[in-house]
Amino acid sequence: MFPTYDQLNLPEVDKQILEFWEKHDVFNRSIEERDVENSFVFYEGPPSANGMPGIHHVMARTIKDIFCRYQTLTGKRVERKGGWDTHGLPIELKVESELGITKEDIGTKISVDDYNKACKETVMRFKGVWDDITKKMGYWVDLENPYVTYEKEYMESVWWLLKQIYDKGLMYKGYTIQPYSPAAGTGLSSHELNMPGAYQDVSDTTVVAMFKTKKEAASSWLFSLPVMAPPVEDEDGGAAAGAMGSQDSNEVHIIAWTTTPWTLPSNTALTVGPKIEYVKVRTKNQYTGEANDVVLAKELVSKWFGGHNQPTIEAISEPFPGEKLVGISYEQLLEGPSPTDGDAFRVIPGNFVTTDAGTGIVHTAPSFGQDDMAVGKANGIGSLTLVDKQGKFTDDAGQFAGRYVKDYKNDPDYKDVNVDIAIHLKTVGLAFNVAKYNHSYPHCWRTDKPVLYYPLDSWFIKASAVKERMSALNDTINWQPESTGTGRFGKWLENLNDWNLSRSRYWGIPLPIWRSECGTEEVCIGSIAELQTAIDLANKELGLDQSVPKDLHRPYIDEVVLFQNGKKLVRELDLIDVWFDSGSMPYAQWHYPFENKDKFDRVFPADFIAEGVDQTRGWFYTLHAIGTMVFDSVAYKNVVSNGLVLDKNGKKMSKRLGNAVDPFETIDTYGADATRWYMISNANPWDNLKFNEEGIQEVRRVFFGTLHNTYSFLALYANIDNYDPADSANSLKWKDYPEIDRWILSRLNTLTKEVTALYEAYDATPACRAIENFVNAELSNWYVRQCRRRFWKGEMTTDKRAAYNTLYGCLLQVARLMSPVAPFYAEQLYQNLKGAAAGASNVEGAMANSVHLDILPGVDESQIDKDLETRMSYAQRISSLTLSLRKADNLRVRQPLQKILVPATDADFQNHVTAVADIIKSETNIKEVEFLTDGDFLKKSLKPNFRVLGKKVGKRMKDVAALIGANADAVIKGIESAGEATLSLDGEDLILTAEDVLIATEDIPGWKVASDGEITVALDVTVTPELAKEGLARELVNRIQNIRKDLDFEVTDRIRVRLQGSSAVEEAATAFKAYISTEVLADSLVLDGDVDGEALELPGEETATLAVSRV
RNA sequence: UCCGACGUAGCAUAACGGUUAAUGCACUCGCCUGAUACGCGAGCGAUUAUUGGUUCGAAUCCAUUCGUCGGGACCA
């Protein structure tokens, strides 16, 4: 028996199938039953379980699931180890907020040990919820044995990888400028800086400081550079040059703007744009009134001079390029030390300089800016770091020593040192301008104090040294979409910077590097065994009693002291960037190389990975970088990066806006399959998805509803007929299948071919759409509709068996094809179909079948018949045209009509249509299809085929089109009689063949016609009395069927009918008694002058009263 | 500010540089139903975001501006 259902309930299907999968261990079997040697390798990017899963996770995981299930369906073994990302900043922050502590408290109010314990507990807090959504959405991944990045084995593999990189000379320790929060005592990641609210509008004291140039060989030209009075606009609006009044400068000051005056004591250079034009301006200092010659960018002169409360220009020089200033030395602005690590106090070039703000000259303090650092280094400039990590000036900072550069302590008596610096500069005549300035500046999101950029020691991976290799390997990766690989990822690789690996934090994998205090001795540990050996040596040399800590996290590992070449080594306190953790998963998930060495060859690299596009510079990169550096290999061969899931208005989902979609609610309401199908079929995964519940409803109704009804149709009649797909009586020869069966089977095989190719290409969206189209338009709406009668008429004939076999086979294959995307419903459908076969009547046996254990049968090319597909499309189009003609004349379909006329311009077309004429006749309720072959009788139209002809004639296309239009009749005649026509264009012969033009019949004189492209149909609208009678008979059938339905009769019930009606009705009933009786399963149909039944109105003002009863 | 993606009817999506920009949903009218929460026919609805260019021909290629989103940089 085929199970039947009242209505489709997808959430209920989910429940039943989940239970089934669990009971029969289907997931494991789908892996274990496949050959190890035939593996498809998938890597699961580890989510962090410290937050709730969102609908976007359902999206990302659906993509992963689809291709893994598809590969399983083709017979591959697809192991899917789950994983958890457990380290990192978000976890630290969560712990800190829950414990009510800050980073500063770690080690004082709370021990590092306890802190890490809290992190470990927090990180898996939502594991249960994650496991739940994973299960409910039907994502198959091994949750029993996941890799966890905080586990010792995982950490050991990470150490090993790092050591490989270290041994290749790809690691170094360096100094970089990083965002740093003195108030919190920690460096900040860019992630923290980008948190909402991090950038705040503040009003800062800004200073334009004057740097006094030294008069020497390099600068003498500047002192003697002539200035002249500024142009004065004359009455005509033109400019008149002022009189020459130049005299050499006594002093020249280069002026530079800063919003952070506290960096001025640490100034070591001034940066100019080499191509930017600068001028020397003679003016008076507005604070001291002294004569003053200053240098700034020409474009910015008007910004600082001539306005309200601004100095006036007394004279100005011709512009000169910035590169002339390069090399000029100046006096240190504020007294203090000179740098020991390079030159200082001279003008250097930098391409980052703009004339958007300030003076076009950048005050450069390499310790406090990334650009400053870079440009300083490039020009041999040293640095001064006159601010300590608490955010106060060091003892070297002269009169400002000991003062906080910002109010980090919430000191009620805090006096802004920036203001004092400004006042001081005014006093000594080195301030050109002091003003308040509103701008947005990053703040530490937790302490709400301004961040400062500070030089911090870091460990780097020299990724830039292998960027060519990374690019080359990247070229072999199949990116979906391609543009992410070549563009976002590829371009980024080309301009790759070194990877800043270290993080000054507590909860993460410690850097396995130990160093002597002087930095001359250094060791990188690559395994626990190595650590053991090193510890043994240190114990011996230093007389200690250390052992390898049970937990490799801080603080235990920090206590380990090593020994090398007579020196004591202590661990570098930093942790490894958590991105390195996740990039290590191909190896660390198997504890490679300490275990699973054999297995590793089989599971590296991955055939397929998928994540959100935001992982491009995250996981996609770290996998690629480690794979390249350690194994000189890609880590993955195919990668799908999906876009964002937005709300239905295209806004980002966020808890704050309340527009976040709860994945549990969605799946509970609509079922996992409708949700998955919607997300994949609606838009390509890499385009952003505007998530709209109405879309899911549509999918549920239109696709799943139709499919379910198609199945129910089969089930209804198959159960009546006891159809058994496994019965040998049903095994038929190909010749037993009629045209329509062959057609749908041809389409089915074509579909299989298309869908398979699309899945192979990691392109699921068109695959879904193709399946949808097949189910809706072809299987349900055409095949089943055409074949209804075959299922319910009479007893089991060969034709009926063929219909059952065909529909059954289509549904079974659809179940397989859709199973990667809609694993639940596909499973139910498959089991219902398989379970109905004899021999599967034992329920356990039937249920043990699973579509996910099946192997997709290959395409049967012999069943693909393109010619047949063409024929059927003619049938559909002609039917559609005929129905449209009926509509125009208000001739309802139940009214039979005599014939349609179809002009046939060639024999091929006529043969094609003849083959499907029966289908057209039954679909449109007409009796004959007649062909018109008399060419002269038809009116034809001619259009050039632009695509073909355009290639041939190129730019003369327009003329050719006009020419063809003017000679339409001749061309048609020529092509129809001789196969070609010759036109003359500019004295040249132009030969047109049949493919160069499109000929269509447009009209049949004297008939009402409709046309669609090259097909034209005319309908004979004459209703003869005989036809009218038949029409009435069909009306009666329709009414009686409705009554049967209203009375809830079974479709097999026999009935008796008594009828009373107008004379036309009674005549029709008499004439078509046999027909009516067969149609409605009536044992008797009698005319009765006194019927007590339902009174009905029929078309043409006819009436009838009907009484129907069961036999 | 830089880099990238995207912008087609009320909504969601199509359209190897080629004829009148297609399909589904929604809406209106009609029809069909012995499977259907289906379907069929007709209608409604688009300056293909903008401006310019290349081309015989542009939704498609190039450039521009605007908008949405993402990634990065910077705020001296």
Automatic annotation (TrEMBL):
Task: Please give the Gene3D superfamilies that the UniProt record associates with this protein.
Answer: HUPs (3.40.50.620), Isoleucyl-tRNA Synthetase, Domain 1 (1.10.730.10)
Q: Which residues bind ATP?
A: K655
Give GO cellular component annotations, separated by semicolons. Answer: cytoplasm
Q: What does the UniProt entry say about where the protein is found?
A: Cytoplasm
Reactions listed under catalytic activity: tRNA(Ile) + L-isoleucine + ATP = L-isoleucyl-tRNA(Ile) + AMP + diphosphate
Motif 'HIGH' region: chain residues: 47-57
- Entry's transmembrane regions: none
Supply the EC number(s).
6.1.1.5
Protein keywords: Aminoacyl-tRNA synthetase, ATP-binding, Cytoplasm, Ligase, Metal-binding, Nucleotide-binding, Protein biosynthesis, Zinc
What GO annotations for molecular function exist for this entry? aminoacyl-tRNA deacylase activity; ATP binding; isoleucine-tRNA ligase activity; tRNA binding; zinc ion binding
SUPFAM superfamilies according to UniProt = Anticodon-binding domain of a subclass of class I aminoacyl-tRNA synthetases, Nucleotidylyl transferase, ValRS/IleRS/LeuRS editing domain
Q: Which family does it belong to?
A: Belongs to the class-I aminoacyl-tRNA synthetase family. IleS type 2 subfamily.
Role of this protein: Catalyzes the attachment of isoleucine to tRNA(Ile). As IleRS can inadvertently accommodate and process structurally similar amino acids such as valine, to avoid such errors it has two additional distinct tRNA(Ile)-dependent editing activities. One activity is designated as 'pretransfer' editing and involves the hydrolysis of activated Val-AMP. The other activity is designated 'posttransfer' editing and involves deacylation of mischarged Val-tRNA(Ile).
Protein name as annotated: Isoleucine--tRNA ligase
- Organism, as annotated: Neolewinella agarilytica
